[in-house]
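Problem: given the chain below (147 residues), write out its structure.
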Amino acid sequence: GFEGYGRIHGMGRIDTGGGQGGRESLERKPKRNGKLTVGSGASQGLCNKANLKSVVVRHAQAVGRCYEKGLMDEPELGGKITARWMIGPAGQVQGVKLTGTLDDSKGTIGGAKTKSCLQRVLRRMRFAKPQGGTCVVQWPFVFTPGE
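Solution.
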């Protein structure tokens, strides 16, 4: 029945073992603190500029999480990425393209996972409906590795 609390009947003794065991395989990589600077964007078309800035700033934390994940694999990852996308008639993001590079201190270009994560975040943004059809937006993001 369900009358007792925490009892196991007929299963024998449960031994949790002693000592530390193989902890190193369970620990996460240390978190790297990086800095994200969200630049001022530009747009072509009849978009509400206040709405553009509000939505991008609201999603900056998710963009930062993409970068933090990238820093775990590539601790010196940094650079400037300019995102370009179109806002459709219903306010949805269409066709995200990224230009610029993310590289490490040795000049090795990397950050493929970070870029794909960034594209996913940007595609999920929803804006106010543009007046007159569509709007093209270009927005810079600067990623600087921390210590």
